[in-house]
Specification:
Elements lengths: L7 H12 L4 H8 L3 H8 L9 H11 L3 H19 L1 H5 L9
Helix pairs in contact: 2-3, 4-5
Length: about 100
């Protein structure tokens, strides 16, 4: 069984904000977003996804670019989609290219 990827909001909540000594309100101000929006991303239950725009902002704030944030979100989304769609995917035949 593959381990569930960590939601990027959890990384933000557990590692990034404490390392930068930022509160949610302080981070939201720096990211030019509402505190409620940021809370939605970092909440433990049913977190909001990181959008490309937020990935750009987080990448700028943290100095690590947007790709890291989008890749984490993509891995998280794909993991959950595969599990949600498992029965449907099992019914789709994989085709081989014609020789």
């Amino acid at each position: 069984m593959t381990r569930e990827p960590t939601h990027p909001g959890a990384i933000l909540r557990e590692d990034v904000l404490p390392a930068l000594k930022l509160s949610v309100a302080g981070a939201a101000r720096r990211l030019h977003c509402s505190r409620n929006h940021l809370h939605g991303i970092i909440r433990k239950e049913n977190p909001k996804p990181i959008s490309p725009a937020m990935a750009l902002k987080l990448g700028k704030l943290c100095g690590n670019g947007p790709t890291l944030w989008l890749n984490m979100q993509s891995a998280y989304d794909l993991y959950h989609a595969e599990r949600t769609m498992a029965d449907e995917l099992a019914q789709i035949q994989t085709l081989e290219p014609a020789a």
